[in-house]
Amino acid sequence: MLVILCPYCGVEAEETELTAGGEAHLERFGPSSSDSEFENYLFMRKNEKGITFERWHHTYGCGKWFHAARCSMTMEIFGTYPAQTSKPPKKLISMIKKKRPEWGEGK
Ligand SMILES: [Zn+2]
What we know:
Elements: E1 3-5, E2 12-14, E3 19-23, H1 35-43, E4 51-57, E5 65-71, E6 77-82, H2 90-99
Antiparallel strand pairs: 1-2, 3-4, 4-5, 5-6
């Protein structure tokens, strides 16, 4: 079972207290975008094997959305951070690179 630290309330929440929200850091496109941009925003996901950045909701806790860096192969959680960021924190990226030197950000 996944145990993920909520960066807002500090609770180490089991996955049954959380709701997965899909890929983090999506660029949003609205009504003025092209059909192709809007379609990609709605349906296209990286679905990466390895390090992935995801949205999580602390549903049975503080009720806030946050982001988590997780390995989709080993299920290791590298860290969590507030959802109001457009990119993962640099400190988290360097920690992941230290643990997984073969990982290339954005691959
Ligand atoms: Zn929380």
